[in-house]
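ARCHIVE CARD
Drawer: 12
Card no.: 0347
Subject: one protein chain, sequence and derived structure
Cross-reference: see card 0346
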Amino acid sequence: MGEEMIGLVFQYFQKASVAAVRITSGALKVGDTVHFLGNTTDFKQRIESIQVHGQGISEADTGAEVGIKVAERVRPNDRVYKVV
């Protein structure tokens, strides 16, 4: 399986376990598998939901800033890869 970089984490909300991600290329859909990778971050997970301003959406395109529920802690500037 290959991976393509689609975005960067710019904020993490610990109480809600939500990563704020800026999509820099491509698109992200509910059901996609992503890989979060940084200096101390390295895990993969399936996307269960994507939100923009508290509203659930099914797909986000380049330039969108979205919230993604994450299974582990992420940090600003962690890279987000889509597993293809």
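Annotation on reverse: Strands lie at 3-13, 18-23, 27-29, 33-37, 42-46, 50-52, 55-57, 59-61, 65-69, 79-83. The mean pLDDT is 96.
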